[in-house]
Amino acid sequence: MRDKDLHIVYQIVANACRFLLAGVFIFSGFVKAIDPLGSQYKIQDYLSAFGLSSWVPFFLPLLGGITLSCVEFFVGVCLLFGVRRSLATTLALLLMLFMTPLTLYLALFDPVADCGCFGDAWVLTNWETFGKNLVLLLAAIVAFRKRRLLIRFISRKMEWLVSLYTLIFVFALSFYCLNGLPVLDFRPYKVGVNIKEAMSIPEGAKPDVYDYTYVMEKDGEEREFTLDNYPDSTWTLVERKAVLKEKGYEPPIQDFLLTDSQTGEDITDEVLSDEGYTFLLIAHRIEEADDSNIDLINEVYDYSVEHGYKFYCLTSSPEDLIELWRDRTGAEYPFCQVDDIALKTVIRSNPGLMLIKGGTILNKWSDGDIPDEYALTDRLENLPIGQPAVNNDLHTVGYVCLWFIVPLLLVLGVDLLVVRRMERKAKKRRQDMMEEKK
After folding, report:
1. Model's pTM, two decimal places?
2. Strand ranges (E), 247-351
3. More confident residue, 404 or 133
4. For residue 217, what are the CA distances in angstroms to 89, 225, 229, 230, 262?
């Protein structure tokens, strides 16, 4: 093969690897950026699994999650446009050199359920994640070694603007979602979901399939049997072992169980079957909840009492900490204890407010967006907030993309029509001067 042909092959392969990495890093960085608290919780899971949670300052997981999302998004955009090629390919390679061995460890020993690479948008098993990272590692090696062959779409004079705007955009998106709620909700507690239905197994769904092994004992001897060679009644059963052979249907919601904090009674069905409106104040750790808007919360409770609506506060904190919250805030509403992880999944705000009716989620608000007296002017049946919120994910994605893509298209236009045109004219002048000297 001639050198020219070989060069073309290398260029095609290098740019294919570059676009693969760009797509994955942009997607991974974006889904982390819109859910910074989710990234924080996942990093805390890692720290707990490795016994490091007590060594790390409380703010570091959140800061680390935001930083990681920004780095991934930045690397992806740089690779997409072919700018900062040395920096982008080096960062991509370093990330994959770190993540690939880590995900191999996760696959072998399973300390956390999933790596959280794509947040809740796309959950992979640990082995799937390791396989994905092997492919990305190979792509990162190729892109790094052949970085000079990556086609540039933005000139050097304008690449600083692309880099700067990318960082500003992804940081702004992260802090916007941190201050409110994620602009896209990939969790099972989306607005419009009926919690009770999401907890049930539909008729005809495939159940889990297990292989059973029986440890039997006779005359001091223990042996293992299966159903195919199960022994006679002279053997005594010691232990039955079950090994999952084939995974069946798994309900999206499994751990949303409400226990009255004072009586210990399970009131899950009572709350989810109520055909009236019910406000649920979510504070996964009541001792860590922000009480700066407690007056608004108390006003919503007074409003619910006035109009005959139910109101509960859901927390995983014990009764003594609940009592401290009552003393500090004057809370009069009843409390229910719920699994901490479930509450973190329900809403990314501590506290946050959710409105349900007949078990269906109608609306969710962060601590800073709780409806006030100007929104609660009538019964919920007559107000917009009492109707199911309309969330169009495609519309939201399009809106976010416009904020990012339109400015970059303007930069690209200026680059093509102004900067490169000036460069061509300057090059032509230099050539004319060289010819005159000759």
Report:
1. 0.88
2. 259-260, 277-282, 310-315, 335-337
3. 133
4. 61, 11, 14, 12, 47
